From TrEMBL:
It comes from the Bacteria. It holds the Pfam family MoCoBD_1. Its EC number is 1.17.1.4. It comes from Mucilaginibacter gotjawali. Keywords: Molybdenum, Oxidoreductase. It is an enzyme of class 1 (oxidoreductase). Residues 25-135 form the Aldehyde oxidase/xanthine dehydrogenase a/b hammerhead domain. The keyword Oxidoreductase applies. The lineage of its organism: Bacteria, Pseudomonadati, Bacteroidota, Sphingobacteriia, Sphingobacteriales. Gene3D superfamilies: Aldehyde oxidase/xanthine dehydrogenase, a/b hammerhead (3.90.1170.50), Aldehyde oxidase/xanthine dehydrogenase, molybdopterin binding domain (3.30.365.10). InterPro entries: Ald_Oxase/Xan_DH_a/b (IPR000674), Ald_Oxase/Xan_DH_a/b_sf (IPR036856), Ald_Oxase/xanthine_DH-like (IPR016208), AldOxase/xan_DH_MoCoBD1 (IPR008274), AldOxase/xan_DH_MoCoBD2 (IPR046867), AldOxase/xan_DH_Mopterin-bd_sf (IPR037165). This is Xanthine dehydrogenase YagR molybdenum-binding subunit. One of its GO terms (molecular function) is xanthine dehydrogenase activity.
Length: 711
């Protein structure tokens, strides 16, 4: 397969984010900003108990408050026809305003609709609800024994179970990750507007306009074509907008009832209970090795929390089946149902959690063996996929180790922990790896050349932040020889040709391939029209003018071929951290972070760098600052705001370097590019914990590593 883009430098190599100016000047319009005439504002009111049922709801005071148009509860909510497809009480999506049952604290019990947001918010405090309370459980660590094996995550065994116990050198440790919340800057928001009874338009924060269209159509029994979903800009999502959530159904329901456009913007507090999170997870890892550092066995168990009404599973233990060459591996994954809302994928779902146990475990093993942590990984390097035995489509992780070690100054690391002082701070280095499946799905793209020589490239895909429009522009420009300024990308619209939901680090591979293939076919079509004119806006314009054509277009669907099954496809990363720990206060500062990605060809240099830096910052939150705190006496969240749930920012990591192996994968797609969104975060928290150990000699296995755990 050709790797044109990887091999020769092009004019677009330094291309800036094509929508960057729109974003920083406030001209990029987000879902909450599509204000229409006669708009009604919705505010949710949540349950103040954690389990039980509603005894009574009195909405009279709220209904007579100024500006209030209606209050919706389960007593008067219009039927959502799709809700009848599954029986009440069945494990599944939370059916909003469906019956009197309460499963978690904060579950929406009412929605106030008013002529202004402020009036809706005021009235939402005037609803009187009484409840029948039943006992509840919100604490994972007290319910580990109740974990059940989910149907879609079977126990795994390769070789002998618990073989690590027979090894000459072994470690066995438990790790805890608290609940992390995506908390994108943009709050989830939807504006719904019906046209009669069978057509609805929504402006919605979503990672996939096509899946939102399908889900709303299913819920309200509409033709998908009669549901228009628009999301040209999304202000971050990280997995939180992969699903169509109950609040979206509620807004569509209310707009139908009132026959008016309804806008619902979640509050920051709602973001903790209405749209999912990375689940609180307990893990236990056992690693055993020969004295010269060859792995004998890996045993990895995990129990994650889910809600009582729905199972959410993720591949927490899968990384232990895949990362290293090891003859004996056993993994077990369990779910504990608690009175909390359902978790959802969050950047690096599964692997980001699992990498904490595996990669901190490898660091503990390296220390026990007195072998350098990188050297230990190299001694157990997998050259073929340990799970399937298939060859890798590409793997240059060893190059990544080297690049990162050089950039962080690994040779300066003292293997003896707690021994290096720098200006009164303990200094230490740590590293950890990450991996995630590399995918390619199907997407359809229109490429249309206009008579003025400019190019339209269009597909339904949304851009949740990584810079989808930018790589689409770059690929189109490189194939067509048309300058980036003459290319218009249109995305985030369900009426455009279908693209998958943006998630799983698959969009550059999937949509990029479709853009590539569409442009190759368009170029061919233009060549057939006039064989003697080559590329560039001027040349193409001439062809169209000669033939008196207003436009030439192609619509191309592209997907992976048989190589997808022949090879094991993964992206790899390694994260290096240098930390400073204050010996008296326990404050941890990231002195320098270096993350290296081995994810094939880097298509768009600037946005790729931003993606890796963002992932490092997110992983730093996992490692050092982020944790949802529940008061288990009441089952209620106590830190559901930015003042108390601490999300790190770039200023917390002043030196943050992103490096790339940048060698093409010959089998995955025409660009040779694999995903990088997930691997940017997977392994970061482990690298931090390992660096903190090197600095202090203290192993903190209960994240985040807050100062109190180090003094
Ligand atoms: Mo993601 S968790 O691939 O949105």
């Amino acid at each position: 397969m050709e790797n044109k883009i990887a091999k020769k430098p092009s004019a677009t190599d330094g291309l800036s984010r094509v929508d960057g100016r729109l974003k920083v000047t406030g001209k990029a319009k987000y879902s909450a900003e599509y204000n229409t005439k006669g708009m009604v504002y919705a505010v949710l009111a949540g349950s103040t108990i954690t389990s039980g049922s509603i005894k009574s709801i009195d909405t009279k005071k709220a209904e007579s408050a100024p500006g209030v148009i209606s209050v919706i509860t389960y007593l008067n909510a219009p039927k959502v026809p799709g809700y009848q497809d599954t029986p009440a009480g069945a494990k599944g999506t939370l059916k909003i305003f469906y019956d009197e049952k309460i499963y978690f604290n904060g579950q929406p019990v009412a929605m106030v609709l008013a002529d202004t947001f402020e009036r809706a918010q005021f009235a939402s405090g005037l609803i009187d609800v009484t409840y029948n309370k039943t006992p509840f459980e919100t604490q994972l660590t007290k319910n580990l024994d109740k974990g059940v094996s989910p149907h879609n995550a079977k126990d795994y065994l390769r070789g002998q179970e618990d073989a690590y116990k027979t090894a000459p050198v072994k470690i066995e440790q438990e790790y805890l990750l608290p609940t992390n919340v995506h908390n994108p800057m943009e709050l989830h928001a939807i504006i719904a507007n019906w046209d009669g009874d069978d057509k609805v338009t929504v402006y919605d924060k979503t990672q996939g306009v096509v899946s939102t269209q399908r889900n709303i159509a299913q819920a309200f029994k509409l033709q998908p074509a009669n549901v228009q979903v628009t999301a040209p800009f999304v202000g971050g999502a990280f997995g939180a907008a992969l699903r169509t959530w109950p609040h979206e159904i509620a807004a569509v329901m209310a707009a139908k009832l009132l026959k008016k456009p309804v806008k619902l913007v979640l509050s920051r507090a709602d973001m903790f209970t209405a749209v999912g999170y990375r689940p609180h997870t307990w893990q236990k890892i056992g690693l055993g090795a020969t004295a010269d550092g060859k792995l004998v066995g890996i045993s990895h168990q995990a129990t994650g929390q889910t809600s009582v009404y729905e199972d959410f599973t993720e591949g927490v233990v899968n990384i232990s089946q895949l990362m290293y060459a090891c003859p004996n591996v056993d993994t077990k994954y369990r779910l504990a149902s608690l009175n909390v809302n359902t978790p959802t994928p969050m950047r690096g779902p599964g692997e980001a959690t699992g990498a904490i146990a595996l990669e901190c475990g490898m660091d503990e093993l390296a220390h026990a063996l007195n072998i350098d942590p990188i050297e230990l990984r190299l001694r157990n390097y997998a050259d073929t996929d340990p799970l399937t035995g298939k060859p890798y489509s590409s793997k240059f992780l060893s190059d990544a180790y080297k690049l990162g070690a050089d950039a962080i100054g690994w040779s300066k690391r003292n293997a003896q922990p707690g021994t290096v002082l720098e200006n009164g701070w303990l200094s230490g280095y740590g590293m950890a790896s990450g991996m995630f499946g590399a995918y390619r799905g199907a997407a359809t793209v229109i490429a249309r050349l206009l008579a003025d020589g400019t190019l339209d490239v269009q597909t339904a895909v949304t851009d949740i932040g990584p810079g989808t429009g930018t790589f689409m522009t770059k690929i189109a420009s490189d194939v067509m020889g048309i300058p980036a300024r003459d290319i218009r990308v249109k995305i985030g619209d369900s009426s455009l040709p279908p693209s998958p939901t943006q998630g799983g680090s698959a969009i550059t591979s999937t949509v990029g391939s479709a853009v590539n293939d569409a442009c190759v076919q368009l170029k061919q079509k233009l060549k057939e029209l006039s064989g003697n004119v080559e590329g560039g806006s001027g040349g193409y314009a001439q062809i169209l003018q000669q033939h008196n054509l207003p436009a030439v277009e192609v619509t191309v669907t592209s997907k992976g071929g048989p190589d997808m099954a022949k090879y094991a496809m993964y992206s790899w990363s390694v994260h290096f951290m240098k930390v400073l720990v204050h010996p008296t206060t326990g404050v941890v500062k990231v002195d320098k972070a270096v993350s290296v990605a081995d994810c094939g060809t880097i298509v768009s240099q600037k946005t790729a760098r931003s993606q890796i830096i963002g992932g490092t910052i997110m992983g730093t939150g996992m490692g050092l600052t982020e944790a949802v705190v529940i008061d288990h006496r009441y089952g209620r969240l106590v830190n559901n705001d930015f003042a108390n749930y601490h999300v790190p920012v770039q200023a917390d990591i002043p030196q943050c370097e992103a490096l790339f192996v940048n060698k093409p994968d010959p089998y995955i797609n025409p660009m040779g590019a694999k995903g990088m969104g997930e691997i940017a975060t997977i392994g970061v928290a482990a690298a931090l914990a390992n660096a903190v150990f090197n600095a202090t000699g203290k192993r903190v296995r209960d994240l985040p590593i807050t100062p109190d755990k180090l003094v």
